[in-house]
Amino acid sequence: MIRFVHDFFDTIKYLDLARSNMVAAWPHSYYRREFIHLKFAHKNLFVLNRPEDVQRVMVSNASNYRKSLANRQALKPILGKGVFVSEGKLWERQRKIMSPATHRSRLGGYARTMIEAGQEMIEKWDAMEENAEIDLTEEMTLLTSDIITRTMFSVYLRERNAQLYQAFQDYLASHGRIHISELIGLPSWLPRPGQWKGRSAVRSFDEVIVSVLEERRQSNDAHDDLLEMLLEFRDQKGEPMTFSLLRDEVASIYLAGHETTAITLTWAFYLLHEHPEIKERLWSEIETELGGEAPSYDAIPRLAFTRAIVDETLRLYPPVHVFSRQALGEDALSGNRIPKGSFMTISTWVLHRHKLLWENPEVFDPDRFMPDRSSSVRPFSYIPFGAGPRICMGKHFGLMEAVLLLALFAQRYDFTLRPGHPVEPLGRMTLRPHLGMPMTFKRRV
Questions:
Q1: What one-character DSSP code corresponds to residue 240?
Q2: 335-362: buried (b, 16+ CB within 10 Å) or exposed (e) per residue?
């Protein structure tokens, strides 16, 4: 009874805090507990911190769990029926169509585009005054936005890039909060607070997405990219993909393909600023392995510590900080009955910092992911890209991009956080620094 009352008030407190900042809402006890069962408004909510339970929900019994309403409602206004929102047969078909675009065989070509775009950013920064200040979050987002549109759609956005960036920021401001109605599964037709504010953001976003599609339709050039795969698709009746669904998939790939890498790079440079001894080791590896040359796809296997920094950044600051599922049928986890309709929450923020799974979980220690120690990481205790059938299909693209750009910029600059600037992780749709990441940069070479 005492545990029930405690958990009830935990739930009330959590739901209230989660609307503003989900990662600040988790009770301290959750970082030690493996299985939490909460009840609110006759709804069962489970928080899973046991890797075996994560594996069952996301992999071995994934067909029994669908994305929860909270996930779908936050993204549907801007992604429609895109692959990151859809379920069932439509999801299976769309995923199959798009998977070849992120196959390993294409990564070498993508790497060249990433370095080319990164060097253009360097030219821009080099033209600025010494010790100029930038918002690293914004700069990284504009860069990865440019990269995803070049690689997947063969388009140079140029001035349209800033419009897409601002539209998505406005959308996050209106739809980024988690609403209690979604967490407890109220019907989707009920109006949500703030929905109307995002409509102008979606219209501005659509202007750019539609212009990309129209540009391609009017082009006579041959393209070997994701957009061409979508345009060439024909169903069993010989019908092409509808314009509406085409728009939704382009929007989905655009958002998923740039936001997470931009955030990862932002947090990585913040952590390096906070840990100068690790930054020195990074510089040493880059100088030893690259010898002054720009990083390349072939060099990635030699940049083991650079990759470990990316992995450890994703552990401490996972851009996708929570996965939510709803049980379609009854199940059992760790000997506990899971009723049909239950809501399952897997917080990577908590899982990646759990005291029973990690040694010194709050410490930034890239060596955890170096070859001689990485085998000690328990399967399904580290899932920055999800797991199972719905694992992010751009995982290898994103990891490669983060490693290459981290090496490229660390080779050239030393970044310093504005003195006294408060850094607070804000967990809404993604995990961003609440007040941005204002940094100055000093040229090293």
A1: B
A2: eeebeeebbbbbbbbbbbbbeebbeebe
pTM over 0.90: yes
Domain of 125 in residue numbering reads as 2-443
Count of all residues that appear for the chain in the document: 445
CB-based burial of residue 417 (10 Å sphere; 0-12 exposed, 13-18 middle, 19+ buried)? middle
Q: What is the pLDDT of residue 184?
A: 53
For residue range 218-262, list pLDDT tens digits in order. 888 889 999 999 999 999 999 999 999 999 999 999 988 899 999
* Per-residue pLDDT at 33: 97
Cross-strand pairs, 240: 234
Task: Yes or no: say if 174 and 197 are a contact pair by the CB < 8 Å rule.
Answer: yes
Q: What is the CATH number of the domain that holds 310?
A: 1.10.630.10
321, 346 in Cβ contact below 8 A? no
How many Cβ atoms are within 10 Å of 87's Cβ, its own excluded? 12
Q: Please tell me the distance from the alpha carbon of residue 15 to that of residue 18, in angstroms, as a whole number.
A: 5
Contact status, residue 227 vs residue 152, Cβ threshold 8 Å: yes
The torsion defined by the Cα of 184, 185, 191 and 194, in degrees rounded to 10, comes to 50
Number of domains in the chain: 1
